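ok so I'm stuck.
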Amino acid sequence: MFFAAGTICSKILGLMNSTNALHPLQVAHARFFFALIFISVFILIQSKPISSDNLRIHFIRSSCGWAGVSILFTAILFIPVSDATAITFLNPIFAMLLAVFILNEKVGVYRGFAALITFSGAILLIRPTSNLGFNPVAAFCLLGAIIMGLEIICIKILSGRENFPQILFINNLMATIIGTIPVIFVFQLPDLVQLFFLVSVGLCFLLGQFFFLNAMRVSETTFIAPFFYSTLIFVMILDFLIYKNFPDLVSFIGSAIIVIGGTFIAYRERLKS
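replied:
not stuck anymore, here's the structure
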C-alpha cells in the first residue's frame, strides 16, 4: 500500500498543471531526501553508530535505486501507471538471472521456465506492433527493472552484513547526494501542496521499505510475495479513483502473468533454501 501511495503521489506531482508540474528527477530526489530525514530521526532515537566496510556496494545499490526510481517516476507520466509498476516488478527476475553471474547461484528448470513466462507478460506490456515496433517508454521502464535487479543483488549482499536501519540510512544518504547534481538543472521551488506530496513520496517509500524488510526477516518469502505484488492492485485502484484510468485487457493479462510468475519463482526460491 505504501509503495502504491508513493507512486501515485509522484504521478500527481508530475501531472499538476503544465506550468507548475515538477520534473521526475526532482520528485525522485525528494523521495530519497525526505526518507533520509525520517530515517535519520529513527537512527538518532536508537542511538546506534553508523559504520560500514561495504561503501562500494552501498554506492552501487544507491546508484541503481536512484536510477530505477527516476525511470519509474518518468515512465508513469507517459504510460499507464499499472503497466509501469508491473514492468518494474520484473526486478526480482533480473536479480535471479544476475545472481548467476555475480553470486554464482544456479537457476533450476522450474525457475528458468517461470522467468520466461514472466518475460512474456512484460512483452505484452511493451505492446509490440505488427511492424516490430514497441512502446519506447515501456522498454525504458524495462531497463529500470534490470537496474533494480542489480540493486536487489546488492541488498542481498548487504543484508547478511549489516542491520537494515543502517542499510536504509546509507542508501538514502548516498542516493540523495547522487540525485542532487542532476536536480540542480530542473529544480523549481515547490508550493505548499507540492511540498506535502514530496514529503509523502519520501515517507511512503521509506515505510514501504521498512515494513517489507522487516517482514522478510520474520516471514517466508512465499508468504510475503503475494502481499508485495498487491501493490499493483492498490496502484490500479488509486489511479482509477484519482484519474479515472482503468487498465485495458492487455494491462490485466500482462500484469497477471508477471505477478503469477514472480510468485511462483518466490515459491521455488523457498524450496531451494
